[in-house]
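User: I'm putting together notes for a lab meeting next week and I want to include a structural view of one of the chains we've been expressing. I don't have a solved structure, so I'd like a prediction I can at least talk through. The sequence is below, exactly as it appears in our construct file.
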Amino acid sequence: MATTQSGAEGLQSLPALLQRNATAFADAPAYREKELGIWQCWSWSETQKEIEALALGLINLGVREGDFIAIIGRNRPYLYWSMVAAQSVGAVPVPLYQDAVAEEMAYVLGHCGARFVIASDQEQADKVIEIQDQLHQFEHLIYLDARGMRKYDHHQLHQFSHVQDQGRAAYDEWITDLNDRRNKLTYDSTCVMLYTSGTTGKPKGVVLSNRNVIESAKNASEFDGLTHSEDILSYLPMAWVGDFIFSIGQAYWCGFCVNCPESADTMITDLREIGPTYFFAPPRVFETQLTSVMIRMEDAGALKKRMFHHFMSHAKKVGGLILDGKPVGLADRLKYAIGDALVYGPLKDTLGLGRVRVGYTAGEAIGPEIFEFYRSLGINLKQLYGQTEATVFITVQPDGEVRADTVGVPAPDVEIRIDDSGEIFYRSPGVFVEYYNNPDSTASTKDAEGWVATGDAGFIEEDSGHLRIIDRAKDVGKMANGAMFAPKYVENKLKFYPDILEAVLFGNGRDRCVAFINIDLTAVGNWAERNNIAYASYQELAGHPRVLETIQEHVETVNRSVAEDPMLSGCQVHRFVVLHKELDADDGEMTRTRKVRRRIVEEKFADIIGALYDGSGSVSTVTEVTYEDGRKGSISATLNIRDAAVMPIAQKMAAE
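Assistant: Thanks for the context. Below is the predicted structure for the 656-residue chain, given as structure tokens.
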């Protein structure tokens, strides 16, 4: 591949970009973190010194070029610094999901052979210590938060600040080595290794080079006109490629500020205080925010409620058109401006999205109604389609061409093709180097010409050039009558309702579709309190007759909508059950990025699926669960199975 402009400028690694930013944006904020209710700030020049001290400390501790350094914890400047410090010494950072249990960590740490681990606190350190007997290559653990760590055996444990202090003290001894290691880094050097979520099997280590990360960050930043003046809130898992490219790749390319919330519990408050200009969230976050809005409106006074619904109805009609610069009548613009002053503006500020200039959602499809709700407020929310193996970006939506039913056009420098089976393939500078120690999977995913199989099915619209995703290729099937089965389409429509947290559709090869539903405990619990309905557990509330009636109304409304689509009208839900427990990553039913593991769910709840298809009115089941402390247990339940009204198949299909 030809040397790019960034390569020609010598900016072939993140440490090189750090050196540039420390000069070009020396006093500008690089990181903020809220601690004990107060925002702490580090400039780019201060950040460069912190990272250099840590890098020197790592060399002093014995880190060699090519070593893997695992990084575990919530979003904190120190852990982002750890990734760049690891790169600076020629090592490879491997961020792990902080909510992973010790057994999951053991697989990743053993697979990559990490000699060093940097952990945020006692909880994460304990997980590593619990499994260290399985990690024959493990040598040292560096911990950030010293609380609770005083009485531990410190032969292999080191406090983060002490490692930095030792690095500063050994500056004269190791600075030449550090400079030599930094200068060796090229576009083809490994930048990071990120593990896939393991939806269908064991996680795979995706090796991304400096070329992958920097070219992807540069192209995406230029596409959206990002500058060093942006503010982002970094709250998503550091082990996820989306956070890595936004909070490190683009942050270092543009030189903008990364803001870290105090905790997951204060994220919404911190979001309001920062008011990011560039914001990314998976659909689940937008769904949760919308649920919160709807709950508050149910508790509002009659006048406020009427005003909200009146202006939101108008926003739904013209908000997206105004945002896209399309023609809208003067009277409608005036009414929208009034709505902005009274409803939309205050609501955006409450959500923390009042300053957002560019917003993205990805990870899985977002419900069209949810997507259009945010855009109707004037928030420039767009969809992108990407993968870890693509260093995120495969398609993006240009301003003025944003639609809920497509994921946009190929991102800059990305080529896309659709094979005869409908599977999507892409090729770009962001295509991963390899799956670590897994040549067979690498060869089956990426061919000799650099084309990568996404595993997703879709098609490119002839008139617009936009890509439409139907579903995961392995999940798309056919009903017994030959009609298309695409579960995600229906599931997303169901999840639009604030009281439905998750939905899983079944029907491939069958004569009809059935569904599992998870209620949203926050939304339904709030409804129960307003209606003086007492409940003692999730299970009891999920089985309440009035809850089941409400969910049935939602299912039947979705059926009416699905029936209007000629291609997918066969995917209406005939029968459903509200599950007695939430699908949980700790129970193996979801990935750490909240994607349903369909095969596991289907196997685990086979008795319930059987009852849905055999006409039973109820089913008794026993399910194994994992408690927060790792203990196993089981819960028993008798579930009410409901029949839902289905609509006649769309006329277009009937005519065919």
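A couple of points you could mention at the meeting. The two ends are 49 Å apart (CA to CA). Confidence is low (pLDDT under 50) at residues 1-6, 651-656.

User: Perfect, that's what I needed.
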